[in-house]
């Protein structure tokens, strides 16, 4: 069972890591600006699912198993990097249009937003580094039971990421009127694309 100091340390470390600009938050802001609150929260849902996946890997030691299958690990790493490059290409050459506040978003777009959030997180070097390198320094993973994982770490991770992500979403929606022009959207999306390219390069270098 985790004590209060470990819970607070984990929450603080996760909150700081989530707030640091990266491909996930870049996509979250871009989607929130272009699609509104619902699109933003769908991306956030995908981001949270990705984090929960790596949290589970770290807790149950699956990351250590993966290290023994170097060829598979390399394949996954290259696949994630290529996907980030693909997303960067889409963001860079996106066809920007005037933002219509209150426009309904269809289910296909919301599903696409959620899947984008999930895949971005799974290929995000920052997320991988946090759960596989920083997390063991914050929490004694050998002492984490199934009950602790399910009743404390999972809900805590969801709450922290939901809180941080919601701040980014509402801030992005708040300034939508400033980004209504095609030029402003182009700057935003190309900035997000640049972050994704940097993340892909970082993944391959590491």
From TrEMBL:
GO terms for cellular component: plasma membrane. It is found in: Cell membrane. The keyword Transmembrane helix applies. Keywords: Cell membrane, Membrane, Transmembrane, Transmembrane helix. The chain crosses the membrane at residues 36-63, 75-93, 113-139, 151-175, 187-205. One of its GO terms (molecular function) is amino acid transmembrane transporter activity. It is a multi-pass membrane protein. Coiled coil: none annotated. Its main location: membrane. Pfam families: LysE. It comes from the Bacteria. PANTHER family: ARGININE EXPORTER PROTEIN ARGO (PTHR30086), ARGININE EXPORTER PROTEIN ARGO-RELATED (PTHR30086:SF20). This is LysE family translocator. It comes from Iodobacter fluviatilis.
């Amino acid at each position: 069972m985790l004590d209060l100091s470990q819970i607070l340390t984990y929450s603080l470390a996760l909150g700081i890591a989530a707030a640091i600009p990266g491909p996930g938050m870049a996509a979250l802001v871009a989607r929130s600006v272009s699609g509104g609150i619902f699109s933003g929260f769908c991306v956030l849902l995908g981001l949270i699912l990705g984090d929960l996946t790596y949290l589970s890997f770290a807790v149950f030691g699956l990351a250590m198993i993966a290290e023994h299958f170097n060829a598979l690990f390399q394949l996954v790493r290259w696949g994630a990097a290529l996907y980030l490059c693909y997303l960067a290409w889409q963001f860079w050459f996106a066809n920007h249009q005037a933002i219509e506040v209150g426009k309904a978003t269809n289910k296909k777009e919301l599903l696409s937003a959620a899947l984008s959030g999930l895949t971005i997180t799974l290929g995000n070097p920052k997320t991988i580094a946090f759960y596989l390198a920083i997390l063991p320094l914050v929490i004694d993973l050998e002492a984490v039971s199934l009950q602790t994982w399910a009743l404390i770490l999972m809900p805590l991770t969801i709450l922290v990421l939901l809180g941080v992500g919601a701040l980014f979403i509402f801030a992005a929606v708040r300034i939508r009127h400033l980004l209504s022009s095609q030029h402003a959207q182009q700057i935003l999306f190309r900035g997000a694309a640049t972050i994704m390219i940097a993340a892909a390069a970082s993944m391959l270098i590491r």
